[in-house]
Design brief:
With 361 residues, the chain is an alpha+beta fold. The chain has two domains: 161 residues, Beta Barrel (Lipocalin); 166 residues, Galactose-binding domain-like (Jelly Rolls), CATH 2.60.120. It is built from four helices and 23 strands. A ten-stranded antiparallel beta barrel has the order 1-2-3-4-5-6-7-8-9-10. Strands 11, 12, 14, 15, 17, 20, 22 and 23 form an eight-stranded antiparallel sheet that branches. A hairpin with a 2-residue loop joins strand 5 and strand 6. The longest helix has 27 residues. It is elongated.
Length: 361
């Protein structure tokens, strides 16, 4: 086990490889400082293991401290530093006395070689460590041991640099910006999509916007919607989600009716309902009691219901719906999907909603 501990100190040297990742450009202090961070050990199949090493820059770049197996009997701490203009290291372990190592010259490209300053009195212990740069993120470390005064066992290890918390946060930020930018572009294209209405005999052009809860413009209270594809092709959103039939949901989407406004979608059964309201006042941001809200909505508290459909028992065949809202041109309308039921079939599902209006030339 002591040899394994010494072996992992080779990992520390392996971190030196990071120091020379750019062919040893910069000062020794810079090379040592570049070891800072976390590394993971990779197995023979290239999979990251649970073995880790941590490195901390000391004294404004004058040294680097490596900690392995912290808070265990095998804990090993190695300090790397520059001594007489040469890289050196001292390892401390609970399994034995300090081991001193010093860099030695090698003609191999992208390789750093260390030797122990002196062998143990019994002629055993760590003899040398060879670090080879594989690429910017991977290092290979090889070490040899002395046995009875002769060079004996040899082992090799590969390490992979892990991203720092700051790097991960920055990457998440970049992904978030990318996703948000993509969503804005999708929304922009949908809002400006000019189509020819396949159900119209006229040559008029129409604007079509498609939306599906949850998504841009939707507000949802209660159980989150579950999205799925009907027949692997048609996007649907269902209130049958984490709590199944007992779950309750309200989703709503506000819009202004334009010229020739129509809504198209399909419904799959359940005892919830879908309605369009000529809005008198906006719903609360957070709906505390969905059953009470459903009663108020149907009672006209938030405006007159101008179209409504109630789902039936679940069926594999969706019901196609088209509501002509052209008579409400210029008015603020709101589409509601309400599941205030907790009995069997206490749910409802609707397809992607198409909001179609006459395009202005």
């Amino acid at each position: 086990m002591f040899r394994q501990t010494i072996f992992f100190s080779a990992v520390i040297l392996l971190l030196s490889a990071m120091a020379w990742a750019d062919s040893w450009k910069g000062s020794d202090a810079d090379r040592l400082a570049s070891l800072a961070g976390n590394w993971a050990v990779v197995d023979s199949e290239g999979t990251l293991t649970d073995l880790r090493a941590s490195y901390l820059v000391l004294a404004r770049g004058a040294g680097v401290m490596e900690t392995l197996f912290a808070h265990t009997p095998e804990e090993t701490v190695t300090v790397y530093y520059v001594e007489k203009k040469e890289l050196a290291a001292t390892q401390l372990s609970g399994r034995g006395g300090p081991v001193h190592l010093r860099a030695a010259r090698t003609k191999e490209r992208d390789t750093l070689y260390f030797e122990t300053a002196a062998a143990k009195s019994d002629g055993s212990g760590l003899r040398s460590v060879r670090l080879t740069r594989l690429d910017d993120e991977r290092l290979r470390v090889e070490w040899t041991f002395l046995t009875d005064g002769a060079e004996g066992e040899s082992r090799a290890f590969e390490l992979r640099r892990e991203a720092t918390v700051e790097e991960l946060a920055a990457e998440v930020g970049r992904l978030r910006v990318s996703v948000e930018s993509l969503q804005r572009e999708i929304d922009r294209r949908l809002k400006n999509a000019v189509i020819l209405d396949p159900n119209s005999k006229s040559s008029k052009k129409f604007l079509e916007t498609r939306t599906l809860p949850p998504g841009p413009g939707w507000s949802v209270s209660g159980v989150a919607f579950r999205r799925f594809l009907l027949d692997q092709t048609v996007p649907f959103a269902s209130t049958f989600a984490s709590k199944g039939d007992p779950g309750m949901t309200v989703g709503h989407f506000g819009f202004e009716a334009g010229a020739g406004c129509r809504l198209r979608f399909s419904v799959l059964g359940g005892h919830g309902f879908i309605a369009v309201v000529d809005e008198k006042r906006a719903p609360p941001r957070r709906i505390a009691s969905i059953p009470d809200f459903a009663v108020d909505l149907e009672g006209g508290e938030y405006g007159t219901i101008i179209e409504k459909i109630v789902g039936g028992h679940w069926s594999k065949h969706a019901i196609a719906v088209e509501w002509d809202l052209s008579r409400f041109e210029g008015k603020s309308l709101r589409l509601y999907v309400v599941d205030a039921e907790t009995d069997h079939y206490g749910q409802i599902a609707l397809s992607e909603v198409s909001l179609i209006e006459t395009a202005t030339e």
